[in-house]
Design a protein that fits this description.
Strand content: 25-35%
Strand order of the largest sheet: 1-2-5
Number of domains: 2
Order of helices and strands: HHEEEEEH
Distance between the termini: 21 Å
Structural class: alpha+beta
CATH topology of the largest domain: HU Protein, Chain A
Largest sheet: 3 strands, antiparallel
Mean pLDDT: 94
Number of helices: 3
Shape: elongated
CATH superfamily of the largest domain: IHF-like DNA-binding proteins
Helix content: 25-40%
Low-confidence stretches: none
Length: 86
C-alpha cells in the first residue's frame, strides 16, 4: 500500500510509511479514549461493549466457562466501499 501511495504523490516510501503509521497510531489513541472515528467514503470505527456470556472450554467441551463483558472495535464500511465490494 505504501508503495502505491508513494508513487501517486511522488514522495519517498519512508515518509509515506511514517504518515501511515502516525495515522494508525492516532486512530488507536482515539478508539482507546472511547471515541468514534469516521473516515469519509471509507467507513466508521467505533468501540462497543460485548455482553458477558457463557462459552465452552475448547479443551473440555463439557465444561462451561464464563466470558466476561469486554470492549471491541467494530467497523462499518461506508456507502462507497459497500458499493465497490462484490
Amino acid at each position: 500500500m505504501a508503495i502505491r501511495v508513494a508513487e501517486a504523490v511522488d514522495l519517498p516510501q519512508t515518509k509515506v510509511l511514517e504518515v501511515i503509521q502516525k495515522t494508525f497510531d492516532a486512530i488507536v489513541e482515539e478508539l482507546a479514549a472511547g471515541r468514534t472515528i469516521e473516515l469519509r467514503k471509507f467507513g466508521v470505527f467505533e468501540v462497543v461493549e460485548r455482553k458477558g456470556r457463557m462459552g465452552r472450554n475448547p479443551q473440555k467441551p463439557e465444561q462451561l466457562v464464563e466470558i466476561p463483558a469486554h470492549k471491541v472495535v467494530r467497523f462499518r464500511p461506508g456507502k462507497e466501499m459497500r458499493e465497490t465490494l462484490p
